[in-house]
Amino acid sequence: MRIGQGWDIHRLKEGRDLMIGGLKIPSNTGEDAHSDGDVLLHAIIDALYGAFALGDIGSHFPPSDNQYKDISSSALLKKTLEETKPDIVNLDCTVILEKTRLRPYIDRIRENLSLLLDIDVSRISVKAKTNEALDSLGRGEAIEASCVILINN
């Protein structure tokens, strides 16, 4: 068995879509990033690469490469899955976002991750937290995600 840990953070910006787990979440702000900025999928991609000791998302999809400009993070995840071919045991994720409440979307996010990862939804946990009004996350200036993935190898 192998374990991978992933993490990502992005500034929030007006005029961008808020993408979490491959879904557009209603919000006045979205991730400011080279791709669509989906912090949850970016953290999962990092965890997958980490589990296989293959570097991180930036080494595979560098922001300096224009072919990834505004690309869907779901497409990046698909490429990652094709490369790693993981047998996922389970995935545990946390998203930290101060202003947009995610609880109403958690089940849809889990279901979409289930489809993207081709695993049963019972193997996926997604938790939503705030940062208790502390630092840039707490001021609503950023969004963060972290996850841990367990792989049969």
Automatic annotation (TrEMBL):
Site residues, Transition state stabilizer: H34, T130
Top EC category: lyase
Protein family (similarity comment): Belongs to the IspF family.
Entry keyword set: Isoprene biosynthesis, Lyase, Metal-binding
Residue stretches making up the 2-C-methyl-D-erythritol 2,4-cyclodiphosphate synthase domain: 1-151
Free-text remark on how the cofactor is bound: Binds 1 divalent metal cation per subunit.
GO terms for biological process, alphabetical: isopentenyl diphosphate biosynthetic process, methylerythritol 4-phosphate pathway; terpenoid biosynthetic process
The protein's Enzyme Commission number: 4.6.1.12
Pfam families: YgbB
Protein name (Swiss-Prot/TrEMBL): 2-C-methyl-D-erythritol 2,4-cyclodiphosphate synthase
Coiled-coil features, chain-numbered ranges: none
Encoding gene per record: ispF
UniProt KW Nucleotide-binding keyword: no
InterPro entries reported in the protein's UniProt record: MECDP_synthase (IPR003526), MECDP_synthase_CS (IPR020555), MECDP_synthase_sf (IPR036571)
Assembly and binders: Homotrimer.
Cofactor(s) named in the record: a divalent metal cation
Pathway: Isoprenoid biosynthesis; isopentenyl diphosphate biosynthesis via DXP pathway; isopentenyl diphosphate from 1-deoxy-D-xylulose 5-phosphate: step 4/6
Species of provenance: Candidatus Ornithospirochaeta avicola
Record-listed a divalent metal cation binding positions: D8, H10, H42
The keyword Lyase is assigned to this record: yes
Catalytic activity field: 4-CDP-2-C-methyl-D-erythritol 2-phosphate = 2-C-methyl-D-erythritol 2,4-cyclic diphosphate + CMP
One GO molecular-function entry: 2-C-methyl-D-erythritol 2,4-cyclodiphosphate synthase activity
Residues binding 4-CDP-2-C-methyl-D-erythritol 2-phosphate: D8, I9, H10, H34, S35, D56, I57, G58, R139
Protein function: Involved in the biosynthesis of isopentenyl diphosphate (IPP) and dimethylallyl diphosphate (DMAPP), two major building blocks of isoprenoid compounds. Catalyzes the conversion of 4-diphosphocytidyl-2-C-methyl-D-erythritol 2-phosphate (CDP-ME2P) to 2-C-methyl-D-erythritol 2,4-cyclodiphosphate (ME-CPP) with a corresponding release of cytidine 5-monophosphate (CMP).
